[in-house]
Amino acid sequence: MDTADQMMSVGTFRVLKSPLGFIRLLEWLFAIFAFATCGGYSGQLRVSVDCINKTDSNLSIGVNFAYPFRLYQTYFDVPLCYGKTRERLFLIGDYSSSAEFFVTVAVFAFLYSLLATVVYIFFQNKYRENNRGPLIDFIVTVIFSFMWLVSSSAWAKGLSDVKMATDPDEVLLLISACKVQANKCKSVHGPIWSGLNTSVVFGFLNFVLWAGNIWFVFKETGWHKSSQRYLSDSSEKRPSGFTQQPYNQGSSEQGNLNQSGGFSTQGDLGQQVTYGQVYDYATHGSTSLANQM
Questions:
Q1: What's the predicted TM-score (pTM) here?
Q2: What is the spatial order of strands in the sheet that 263-266 belongs to?
Q3: Could you write out the DSSP letters of every residue in 231-268?
Q4: Cβ contact 45:187 at 8 Å
Q5: pLDDT digit string (tens) for 49-84?
Q6: With contact defined as beta carbons under 8 Å apart, do 22 and 187 qualify?
Q7: Strands (E), 152-288
Q8: Which contiguous run of DSSP H or E holds residue 72?
Q9: 74 three-class SS
Q10: Torsion angle, CA of 71/75/81/84, rounded to 10 degrees?
Q11: Quick one: which of 69, 93, 22 has its CA closest to 195?
Q12: Could you tell me how far CA 272 lies from the centroid of its own chain?
């Protein structure tokens, strides 16, 4: 019970307030929207075929299609406008590769975001241990950012092709009865694309989230910390400028009386001059020279 209480304490969820945890939570949520709007889509279009013989007409022909958009497997029956005979037609195109790729990336991103959030909350110490967790997290984040960009771009192109293949005006061109000018064919309504358009938007939003989260994950790695340490060390070891020793003016101007009554000064060059010695030499030297003469 103590472990459960500790895990459910409010303090363990503080990481969700940081950019790293909060963006992971958004990635988890946006991934759900991405694969739900695409993988759960089903659409319908309707056309009408008004034959010369009204009894052969069909004014509401429904064509249903859904994820993964293998349209070549979608069929519908239309009148031939002579007798009660019908023909079975199929839509054109297979766009399952881009749709399934997009949904697969979204599902794996959802699972990884959920796993990363759990690790952030309950296993923060193990995550930072030996710097292995942040490095793996950084590499996976970069990979998912690239995969979101590729899958969203591919699905945007695939959705454009699906819209063209399921355009009611394009479907009418497949019906043989509509090639006869006496028969009147028209589209009743087309598919609603708001759900699939939303899936593309969430795909690129996920790319923005994952790409933006690269920086916050990088800050947790040892690479960022080592670079910060290098910058701090280089700033502390800047070369110092030349320092000139001040001229010791006081030592050259202020004299000291020695025991013989002389006055001595000391300069910067370390040479000492005793004026008392000079005085004695001058006095005694001149006296002895006078006696010799």
A1: 0.72
A2: 256-257, 263-266, 272-274
A3: HHHHHHTPPPPP-PPPP-HHHHH--EE-TTS-EEEE-T
A4: yes
A5: 999 988 889 999 999 999 999 999 999 999 998 888
A6: no
A7: 184-189, 256-257, 263-266, 272-274
A8: none
A9: coil
A10: 180
A11: 69
A12: 75
